[in-house]
Structures
1.
Amino acid sequence: MAIGLRHFAERTGSGVGRPVLDDSDGEELMHVQEGVSIVLGSRPAESHGTIYITSRQVIWLSDLDSNKGYAVDFFSISLHAVSRDPLAYPSPCIYAQIDIEEDECEEDESEGLESEFDTGPLELSKIKEMRLVPSDPSQLDRLFEVFCECAELNPEPVDDEEDHDWVFSADQMEADGLEEEDSAWNLSGNHTDCIGHSNGHHDLAQTVLQLEINDKRFEDAEETERDNNGHQ
Amino acid sequence: MLFFSYFKEIVGREVVVELKNDLAIRGTLRSVDQYLNIKLENTRVVDQDKYPHMMSVRNCFIRGSVVRYVQLPPDGVDIELLHDATRREARGG
């Protein structure tokens, strides 16, 4: 899910270095732009940086402090645009909105902070807006196009895994439910159902567990069993 | 793919794109791709008081997954055609 901005400090090479990319997962460097300031939310601009646009994320690295850098995945960028109106921001820039996981209870607090010029402690995960200000404004249109291309490389993942999670937890709930019923008193009826449904180790383990429970009760539950058989 | 085809037909028309964060942007639809990412030109934010930073923006790229609604030009919709197409799509044809 959207995780917003994060710190980025993994650099390679000499001098201020370059960002370490995840080559093994096919991450490619698409564009480099030197002389770019970054503005996070309504914080003051941080200048003297270089942006690296990869097939997956935008990374800004400070040219002065090799420990300072930020990154945001294209997954988390809801919107990007070229901003040229000096009334909105003194310098032409790339403006981006960042999708963050809203924390309902803290929302008011963070909005209060954003309305003022914010110099408090930096909480990257709450930053909703980012501006990238190149010292050469003629690069803006090119940057915008690269942003577009890379955003298109990052469509929403198909939620296969999430689906599996759902099925799995539903199974588990069902199995738990059966077990509970079992311990109450219902014996052979549910038992058959459980075997009928079983697929995979998890269910098998549940079945064995239930068998054991049933065995214990078997000795002093003749009447119950007969009742149950009667219902079948 | 149905809505991708549909949106391609109304490129050049004015639409209002409403995002899941309640921001609504009016603009000329410049392009759309298969993920329903949307590029707008001549944009105006509908509620400028609430989103002053967006006032300066004249063109923008909106990630398809953050779009809640797209308000269409009333005469840009052939309802019969769209009905038929959605039925065909539902049948998997």
2.
Amino acid sequence: MIIVTSHDNIIIGLEIHVQLTKLKTKLFCSCSSKYRGAEPNTYVCPICIGLPGSLPVLNEKAVEFAMKLAIALGCKINKSMYFFRKNYFYPDLPKGFQITQYNKAGGKAFGDGGKVIIKKKSGKKEILLNRIHIEEDPGRLVHKGSIVSSPYTLVDYNRSGVCLIEIVTEPVINSPEEAREFLNQLKSIIQYCGIADLDLEGSVRVDANISIKGHARSEIKNINSFKEVQRALKWEIRRQKNFIKRNKLLKQETRHWDDSRRVTVGLRSKEFEKDYRYFPEQDLVPIELKKSYIEKIKNYLPEMPNARMKRFQNQYGLSEFDSEILVMDKDIADFYEEAVNSEKDFESKEYKLLCNWLKGDISRWLNLQNKKITDTDLTPIQVVNLVKLIEEGRITGKIAKSVIGDMMLGTPIKKILKQQGKKRIADEEKLSSICKKVIQENSEIIKDYKTNPRALEALIGKCMKETHGQADPKITRKLLLEYIEK
Amino acid sequence: MAYEIIDEIKREEITIEDVVQSTFENINKTEHKLHSFVNLYRTEALEKAKKLDNKLKNNEPVGDLYGLPLGVKDLICIKNKPVTCASNILEGFKPPYNATVITKLIEKSDGICIGSTNMDEFAMGSSTENSCYGETYNPWNLSCVPGGSSGGSGASVSGGQVLAALGSDTGGSIRCPASYCGVTGLKPTYGRVSRYGLIAYANSLDQIGPLTKCVYDAALLMELMAGFDEKDSTSVNLSVENYTKDLKNSIEGRKIGIPLEFFEKGLDKSVKTKVNDGIKILENLGAESVEMSFPHLEYTIPTYYLIAMSEASSNLARYDGLRYGKGPSDLSGDIFDVFSRTRGEQFGKEVRKRIIMGTYALSAGYYDMFYMKALKARTLIKNDFKKAFERCDVIVSPTMPTTAFKVGELIDDPLKMYLMDILTCPVNLAGLPAISIPCGFDNKDLPIGFQIIGNYFEEKTILNFGFELEQKLDIYKRSPPVIGGK
């Protein structure tokens, strides 16, 4: 096996397609774009199934959303927006062409350039973008079971005509990790723009171009989530390095990411470039993108993650590390701000505590359940209460940890504590008898303690267990020390 | 004339039912000779006639085409009625919606659709010989073609079957049959009439327009069908003038441009003579003629065919047999085999030829040489008109260089057939409005068309000039031999 030690000679460029899932309707017709879970071929009209005689009409909101992203990514926005046709035959493409934008043959994507800043151990890096453009999504092919064994193919046009944005990077990414980090940042920016929810199934598709310096590149298609990208790239690098090691010639090809087997599979070799015969779409008139219009959108654009991160450091005294984690997910960051601002007495200590709970136990619970904070019934006030109870010494951190799960389901913390009878035990008499009992039962640890003072922690743990975590750790420690010394 | 019939109905001198009955009687008498129609809707038309008759009885408001029978070219969508573009590939297709012109003329203005008229397949042709239903014949001489591609509409109006019909004009498809059949045909400014529901041949050139017995009727229909439509982005948001009111304006002192190149090569002697006679009539009415040059006329045919075929190759890509139409005859092979077989079998020869040539012209490596160059030549032609209109109000020319030719005469000489469009297609390339009105007959008693081209959105002006000429010539009421005229 080849171990990838240096990434310097790896060249990766990404093409990312994201659905603007926050649009109510499709790109060129008024069909709903909320097709997920719908009966096949019910979210369709003459326009999105390309019936003869139908004509596309551009969704104004889609232009606005696209502008938001272009501004957020720092693209140069072209003076007018016009469309091209990309011609090819496929069952999911009802018109026999896709309405898109193109950067050659007199065409122009609406946004050129732009960049996304990513963080690396060694510092920051700018990932430069080549362009971004709008296009329509094709329909969807549905197979019974696997694509190979299915006796037939069904076509569902519900997705046909949904608005996609394609973001193309320059070939400046040097490792799968960088790619992953770039995609995380991009996802965050898109979330902040309020134009798409990329956690929805099928809302993201990535094609990756990858090569080892001096060798032919391959294009990996069909990577259907940001998480898979890193995996696919790692696999492909390994494959290419193996080839080179065995002195075999890599050929330029298109490969398919098989996410169940987690390997890339070669498709037919690219002997000639597929000819899409791009040419202008004359059914749509060019839209002029006036400066005043772009300015207006710019003014309405929410604070982007980078700016918010700096503000979190200044305003709440959080570290760069903490604020970065908080702002990455806009919902978490919004939740955080609502929480800290709901309590006037909170200061930097509480700011930090709240941050810790959010990025720690709460995020962990969300990840485990694969949920977003907005999907839960947890309210900012509840987390504020939690922090307050700890601060006032009325519950221990351990108790707090144990009730997070119920809190996420919407039960107020005070109610949980009441039901479970969980409360900090600070009564020294009560704690004394527990400490004595633990000392009697654990003479081995006591012996150990003589040479290793850290054995005390084990005893505290035993006391906690006895009290279901309710024992006040400070008092318990004090009492244990007293009795052992005696 | 249509307007007379509408008045008679409104004055309750005749019923709509009578009008529709006699329309079908006339069709019965001549249809076996002319073959203008591909579908007739006798039952529905009579039902609608009865309903409409009741409107007047009940003192309800009535539309401006109240009870007027109309023929509709077989590429304009009528809800739940077959529309085939005279092609096997669309057999059985019934659109679930009305074209905007149908909504306006039939639904809102109380016109009655009598049937759909024959045409060259997908409007590709100048003779109505390329139809999957067989040829249509010229009412003035049954061995001659009626012109094309709206030949069925031209023949049905000329042959007294209907007083008005709709056609579409991409390179002359309304004006050519109007010229050959001795009727009035108007091609509006690109963007004046909504194309929604018009099945595209070449979408940057196509326009729907009327074919009628007289200029007044054309003005009436234009008034009702023109206007902005939010379903067609290329339709222009400009108010529609009262074309019928301005017909009798004096043309004294107004300028007629005579582009010398339009009177040169390949022109029949009789055509030249009669058109010049027409110009003299306009001069006698006080108009001034201005000779001018149109240097880029020679590029018209290659430019037109390159653009039209390129667009057609993309517009016709949707006919793969998967969603509507006749469907594949045989499912063997992969999906691309099925698509190829369906398209190969079900498109006619002329359509296949144009798709192949258009595909070639858009291909990588040829795009700049052909399509881009054609776009540049198109601009030159536009500029020729622009310059010309600085010096005149209208431009006049013969509509067609010859009178109608014999069925089958040019079928094996496509180049000569294409060259027939030389005087009509520059108008489409520039997007201007033009009208053809009959201005005399040749020695075989075949009608000659007089073309009046206007500046953008000057339908009013060309109708005005056309009306003045028509009234002075006074030949528009002449009937062709097929209905007993001489």
